[in-house]
Task: structure prediction
Amino acid sequence: MDPNYPVASPENSRIPIGDIEQWLHMYEQMLKIRLFEEQVNELYKSAKMPGLAHLYLGEEAIAVGVCETLNKDDYITSTHRGHGHCLAKGAAVNLMFAELLGKAAGYCRGKGGSMHIADPESGNLGANAIVGAGSGIATGAALSIKLRGTNQVAVAFFGEGALGQGLVYEVMNMAALWKLPVIYICENNHYTEYTYYEEVMAGKLADRPAAFGIPAEEVDGQDIRQVVAAAQRAVERARNGQGPSFIVCDTYRYSGHHVGDINRGYYRSKEEEDLWKAERDPLKQARDWLVTEMKAPDSIFEEIERRVNEEIRLGVEFALRAPYPDPSEVTENVYA
Amino acid sequence: MFTHNLSTLQALNVPMREITMSQAIHDALAEEMRRDPTVFIIGEDVAEAGTPFKVLMGLVDEFGKERVIDAPISEPGFASLGVGAAMTGMRPVVDIMFGDFLGLVMDAIANQAAKIHYMSGGKLKAPIVFRTTLGATRRAAAQHSQSLQAWPSHIPGLKVVLPATPYDAKGLLKTAIRDNNPVVFLEDKLSWQMKGFVPESEYTIPFGVADIKRQGSHITLVGTSSMVQVALAAAEKLAEIGISAEVIDPRTTFPLDKETIIESVKKTSRAIVLDEGYERYGVTAEIASVIADGAFYYLDAPVKRMGAMDVPVPFSPSLEECTVPTPDAVFEMAKTLCGKN
Result:
């Protein structure tokens, strides 16, 4: 890797202790995603949710850490594993659940489902079920930002599996050439579906964007402080007209590729899963830091848990009670 | 204007000028870019080169490289950029140099642009035009000669335009740019030098309005794009032997003006459908089924289809010539249907 590219390390990536309220808010957002996804799994197991879902459990610090550095009118594109990104960018829990259950009150009136939640009001240009496709849309949004002359940025979230898609390189080339305000967030959760990523990927992840002259950082995606610090640098570059950045976040997918992927022994061990959960859990790490270094009292976490649990409970209730779309809606919105 | 038929406008003495199809495309883009600052062009060699076909020559001088953007040879990449830009307030015109390259960009067109409005429950939209080409007989062989309009026509969420004259090309391209949906706009490479009249004043042509290119009473020839001229030439020959052929140009395969086609066949009782796409599962099949469904009790003969031969387009002139319907072939088919053999 080019020595000029910043590499995250404890020395340069931990931002100074700032506003504790903001860190607690980030913890709350991570917890919201954690409990949301656990509830999604319950809805699947109890056959209340049609179809499947790809859970973001274990990766919460990335979505929250990145989205907390963005403004409401900044854009994101998400993936099939997108609930965390949508919530972190500002989606409401109840409307998310409603969409997952295929209800008319959902973000897409039940037409999108788990893999297609879009919410332009919060800058979310949509989760995308074609791996890598969101990178093209986010880069296009960045081109649009440049042409319209606004100060927005666009963020493309994708997994390391998307680096198998040629599209990602085509758009990174154009983003670098034209200095587009786009940030590529590569969530390396180590498994491209059911395959360990190194079995299908030559070389180092961060060398690829570096080939286009795009600054690439590698951070511990389980440490929200590192994610925030790297994202802040990338956002600043983008807003200053310095072009794209690429951040590789080392993370882990706690659950299977999707909710139905239960028996995972043929591609990874239970011990490995347990180790990540015990030693590198993003919520545990954030809480430990907030308690020991920021002196946050336990009572604050009890309050946060109570609030988030209530939001999730009400959200599920709302979604379960909400009506399905009328069949007459099937032909609506094919054309604008 | 209350009519979208060139002959009618000419009969009404609407002031006209004669230009090529290429100029018509160029002028439509220039007018829309002047009118709407969100319109921009992106593609390979679109700026100073004006594309290899020179259709866009000069646009970069007026609108600059920010709005006439030379992209790398990355069709999936710049098509996707177009979709993202369209979703965030711009109106891109994406230049796909050859229709065959639709194979490279179908994810952006069919999975992204076509579906985003529906998938988002109507919250997002992608007002984008993909300009590309169709047409064989340029000795360009199998990967630069196909007429793939059936592909986008198959996908809900897309609109598909097949202009056959300068008048249609200009009016339809302006409509395409103003449409809030993704539009695939296919131009016949061999028609760019065709000359024709266009009104001097501003006009647009709505989608889904077929044009009766020639009135007739014995047989209906439905032709798209390059096949409109083939149908008109066949009609001329048929007139010499007393067969009056009506030539209908749907102009858009979606939305499709079924009514005009069906009404014509109800009048003539016979129909041949012509399109330069492969005959198999093609545009001709869809339109033939529309006729069979809508004019069944009026038909005196089976509806016939004529498209490109179901082979990859060959290089050698002696082979390539066999693959595309000709006026003579249409003439013979029409004669048979009319019982004149």
Observations:
- The first helix of chain B runs from residue 6 to 11.
- Residues 14-199 of chain B form a domain with the Rossmann fold fold (CATH 3.40.50.970).
- Chain B touches chain A at residues 38, 40, 66-67, 71-72, 74, 76-90, 107-108, 111-112, 116-125, 127, 156-157, 159, 180-181 (CB under 8 Å).
